[in-house]
Design brief:
Layout lengths: L8 H13 L22 E5 L2 E4 L4 E4 L2 H4 L8 H11 L10 H13 L5 E5 L2 H16 L3 E5 L9 H4 L10 H4 L2 E4 L4 H10 L4 E6 L11 H11 L3 E5 L3 H4 L4 H6 L5 E4 L10 E5 L1 H4 L22 H17 L1 H23 L5 E4 L6 E4 L8 H13 L2 E2 L11 H24 L20
Parallel strand pairs: 3-13, 5-6, 5-7, 7-8, 8-9
Antiparallel strand pairs: 1-2, 2-3, 4-10, 9-10, 11-12
């Protein structure tokens, strides 16, 4: 790719086809063309490793692959080999396959803090199952979730708390309460406000900031003291923080945890895991009231479980988590240096753990700006970098990182011009990008 602007005529045509047939033009809101500069939302043809090609033939270095799910890179040979071995053997049967036992045992060996696991196809099913199980075992209705974490489920108990609550009864939303991350006193106050009402605390164990010392253990103690269940959403932290998730890294074992994203390297598989005493309530070997925990027709497709096993083996044997951190550290340092060299270090800001980097685009007053994000994304795309975040995959090479840093430097030069002009509008090329959660189109 070269030149001042990027032309995407075929992508624009396919985007129109998508909007005609698919509400929102994508099957995940975070992939919508409203998340990209106007007329610069590439439609992907294929990917390999850390690169993707759009239908117009442009090649990009890609970050945040598959919304963080493709952490080994596209078409990873070890994963594909495992998948192909199963495809000729059938993928779904009227009874469990032996692959289900093998995959469960492999998962529990990789995440030894869990005692039982049940697989599904997406993260929302797993987190909702965790909430349902917590409600069943406690006999309580309220759910307390961390307000500082952006997404937990497509289901009513969570979506009702967002700026897009249409179609969700207020009676459902009223049963969900929130707490800020890192503040044990606030959680204690929540338990005092709703005594014997809160079924569970659910949060990502870590995101852009490290948990304060003692915080996660303190949450577990508070939950147990008040008769609640502690749930870690490890959709992102699973594998990216350590092979055993954030719970393995920080040494705090929740009652239940959910995994997905990196687990299948793009193949659809998620997991609910946790203490045997709780998980068995969704089984057949107890004398308590039964819980309809998880029951998905495609949850145990053999090829997806084979992919998950290959992913776990690759992570453990090849030190993938360490590589993700090393690549992320190189990228973060390069971006920060490039921004500082142009005088925009206070406006283009890299945040988060090295294996899970995001960036903030701030205006002249230091406020988050969708307009400046649009400008930045536009320059990245023109330079062949597809980066809604800076989340790395292990398929990236150092040359990819160096190229990205060069393009970031070019983007920062334009950013500086916009700051000096006091208005980014001339560099937007159309309407600004929009947040996913908003009440109106």
């Amino acid at each position: 790719m070269s030149g001042e602007e990027l032309e995407l005529p075929l992508s624009r045509a396919v985007n129109e086809r998508l909007h005609a047939a698919v509400p929102g033009g994508a099957h995940t809101y975070a992939k919508g063309d409203d998340q990209y500069p106007q007329d610069l939302a590439p439609v992907i043809s294929h990917g390999r490793g850390a690169h993707v090609w759009d239908v117009d033939g442009n090649r990009y270095v890609e970050y945040g692959s598959g919304l963080r799910s493709v952490s080994l890179g596209h078409a990873h040979p070890r994963v594909l080999e495992a998948v192909r071995r199963e495809l000729d053997r059938g993928s779904n049967f009227v009874r469990p396959s032996v692959v289900e036992a093998e995959a469960a045992e492999r998962f529990l060996a990789t995440v030894p803090t869990a005692e039982m696991v049940k697989f599904a196809k997406n993260g929302s099913d797993a987190t909702t199952a965790a909430v349902r199980l917590a409600r069943a075992v406690t006999g309580r209705a309220r759910v307390a979730l961390c307000a500082d974490h952006p997404f937990f489920s497509v289901d009513d108990w969570f979506i009702g708390t967002t700026p897009m609550p249409a179609g969700i009864p207020s009676e459902t939303t009223d049963l969900t309460v929130t707490f800020p991350y890192g503040d044990l006193a606030a959680v204690e106050a929540l338990f005092d406000r709703y005594p014997d009402e809160i079924a569970c605390l659910i949060l990502e164990p870590a995101t852009g900031t490290e948990p304060p010392p003692g915080y996660l253990a303190g949450l577990r103690d508070l939950a147990h003291r008040h008769g609640s269940v502690l749930v870690f959403d490890e959709m992102i932290t699973g594998f990216r923080w350590s092979e055993a998730g954030a719970q393995g890294l920080y040494g705090v074992t929740p009652d239940l945890s959910t995994f997905g994203k990196a687990l299948g390297n793009g193949f659809a598989v998620s997991a609910l895991a946790g203490r045997r005493e709780l998980m068995e309530r969704g089984g057949l070997r107890h004398d308590a009231e039964r819980v309809f925990l998880l029951s998905t027709t495609h949850g145990a497709e053999t090829h997806a479980l084979a992919a998950a096993m290959a992913v776990q083996s690759t992570y453990v044997e090849e030190g993938v988590t360490a590589r993700l951190h090393a690549l992320g550290e190189r990228l973060a340092a390069g971006v920060r240096d490039a921004a500082a060299a142009i005088g925009v270090a206070d406006h283009v800001v890299v945040r988060g753990r090295a294996s899970n980097l995001v960036f903030a685009t701030l205006d002249a007053q230091g406020r988050p700006s969708q307009e400046y994000r649009t400008l930045f994304l536009r320059r990245l795309l023109t330079g062949g970098i597809l980066a809604p975040s800076f989340v790395v995959s292990s398929a990236l090479e150092e040359a990819d990182i160096d190229r990205t840093v060069d393009v970031v430097g070019q983007a920062c030069a334009v950013y500086r011009k916009a700051l000096d002009a006091g208005d980014p509008t001339p560099w937007l090329g159309g309407r600004p990008v929009r947040p996913v959660f908003r009440r109106k189109v």
